[in-house]
Amino acid sequence: MSNQRFVMKCGGSTLAALPDAFFEDLRKLQASGTQPVIVHGGGPAINETLGKLGIESRFLNGLRVTDEATLDVVEMVLAGRINKEIVRKLQQNGARSIGLSGTDGKLIEAKPVANAHEVGLVGDVTGVNASLVEGIIELGYLPVIAPIGIDEAGQRYNINADTAAGAVASELGVDTMIVVTDVPGIMRTVNGEKVVLPRVTFADIEEMIKSEEIYGGMIPKVRAAMCCLHGNVKEVLIVDGSADRVLSRAVTDGGIGTRIVKE
Ligand SMILES: Nc1ncnc2c1ncn2[C@@H]1O[C@H](COP(=O)(O)OP(=O)(O)O)[C@@H](O)[C@H]1O
Ligand SMILES: CC(=O)N[C@@H](CCC(=O)OP(=O)(O)O)C(=O)O
């Protein structure tokens, strides 16, 4: 990895499975002068809490249909529970960290998505307060960001965590975004066997979305990856959070998971 700062998206699918070694690696990276920034999801935990409250979870093209009552739960689970769990884990493993929601310091500014009439209070990112994130890093803390956005009028929005991470990566001007999830990379069936693709291009992605070999939660990841690779981000890696020493391997040689490249 050529630049000392990177953005890492931790998916809700894998958060509970992340071993202590994962957080230890973050401490080591922080101690060696590397500057990780975490943006996290928490879809399964939101579903669980909504279920307990008798609220049905509905998705349209991977985006949660979000009304005010749902958004209360999304914010409570992401900015309250999950964000603080990650901060605690980091601290237990010796990393200094601060958790924020995208509404704090207008970290993530947002506007309604184009199909807001269908999905409700879901946002697209219009701006990222990069100087706030940089200030936290300069103080020696690892920022942990929950993907809630805010607009000029103070309205909150639910933002897909892959989308939010891609926007933060672009705005911070990092070289690398690492997407940590529950599969070892982008997979495809070859001769009846599932294999992990070490490298995929934009053209491969479009073809695999069309053929439905990329579906569901992988779609926002590849879309966010393509979006930030169109800007200054140089590489996006998709890796499995439960793999042994996944972070040190991703950061040192990148020889793990799937690397997304333009061509
Ligand atoms: N081609 C693919 N290769 C690997 N996983 C895929 C692919 N297409 C879709 N997926 C799905 O994407 C999921 C990861 O997305 P998601 O469940 O939203 O995770 P996260 O919470 O980490 O964002 C995988 O568990 C898998 O079911
Ligand atoms: C708009 C939208 O769908 N927001 C997501 C935010 C959390 C998320 O993206 O979590 P994962 O990364 O674990 O999927 C949601 O409500 O589930």
What is the count of distinct domains? 1
> What is the global morphology?
globular
What share of the residues lie within helices? Answer: 25-40%
User: Strand tally, please?
Assistant: 16
Residue-averaged pLDDT: 95
Report the sheet-strand fraction: 25-35%
Biggest β-sheet: strands ordered side by side in the sheet: 5-8-2-1-11-15-16-14
Identify the CATH architecture.
3-Layer(aba) Sandwich
The third-level CATH topology is Carbamate kinase
Structural class: alpha/beta
Highest CATH level, the class: Alpha Beta
Give the helix/strand layout.
Elements: E1 5-10, H1 20-31, E2 35-40, H2 43-52, E3 59-60, E4 63-64, H3 68-92, E5 97-101, E6 108-112, H4 116-119, E7 123-128, H5 130-138, E8 142-146, E9 148-150, E10 156-158, H6 161-172, E11 176-181, E12 187-190, E13 193-196, E14 199-201, H7 202-210, H8 218-230, E15 235-240, H9 246-252, E16 258-261
Parallel strand pairs: 1-2, 1-11, 2-8, 5-8, 11-15, 14-16
Antiparallel strand pairs: 3-4, 6-7, 9-10, 12-13, 15-16
The chain binds adenosine-5'-diphosphate and N-acetyl-L-glutamyl 5-phosphate.
